[in-house]
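User: What would this chain look like folded?
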Amino acid sequence: MDSSVSPTHGEQEQSVWTGHFGCTCYHPLFVFNQFGDLERCALRAGNVHSADGWEQVLKPVVARYRGTVRRIAFRGDAAFAQPNMYEFLEAEGIDYAIRLPANQVLQERIGDLLRRPVGRPAHYVQRFYRSFRYQAASWSRPRRVVAKVEWHHGELFPRVGFHNKRGRCEQWIKEGKAAIKWTRLSCRSFDANAVRLQLHALAYNLGNFLRTLATPEPIRGRSRVCARSSSRSARRWSATAGTLPSKWRRSPSPAMCLRTSCGWSPRCARRRLRRRQYERPAKRAGKSAGDLSPFDLAVRIPAARRPDAGAISHRTGGSTRPPPGKTGGIIR
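Assistant: Here's the prediction, encoded as structure tokens.
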């Protein structure tokens, strides 16, 4: 679970200036699963806390999975470090890892790990862990706390936290913003913008389902933003077989290309072949494609693919056939 910012540029209802984000915005809340599917989302006003209204978002998701899976785990940022959140997850039997805001008591428990290790600085990341029991003043009982301290080469102070793969939720939110454009909430009323957010969420889940179902194995782990940007250069890649390939290789030959919009496209292959045979030789010769002489075409197109190869003589001799070793490429 994580919250995000949706900037607004008009006079939408409940869009409020927020100093933390530095803009007038909405503050929606999202819940994802481990596959990147958006389980539930809710549009909120721009001046609410990051964990405001988490019960209406998280509890229906837990109720839907209750009895269908054997184990549920929850991850959240420091904004969800609340006693009522802990008690709800423990009552449902859900494992959780929620970051704690730093305080003086926690700093003292790991004080020996915050001192720089003795010796010369290592060229690799040095990691230290500490597990202990801790009870805040607002907690009803003590709970386990795990701290991770990292010393990076070239950095003066250590990094304290427990952030393994926590950024994946933020990456999925970034995909929704860049690929689905779910921050476009330009309706005047708040309810209309909430409906638009749900429609964007439906489009996001549909795209994520198609990605996991029909995407080739080499690019299955890429985000929708990376897939959209890489499709622009997909024509430069050729397949190793006539069916959907399992591996890719760079090839100078004009083979069929793979596009997200048209699939296997012979049209793209013909365009690439025409560019290699006519446009590039003309550019090197300082001419347009229509000003190429038969000799320019003869020395560019191999004899095996040239129907009138016997009718064009070469400058290397008086024979009407190309000399050995000069059947293709540029003669220099």
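Residues 169 and 330 are 53 Å apart (CA to CA). If you want, I can go into more detail on any region.
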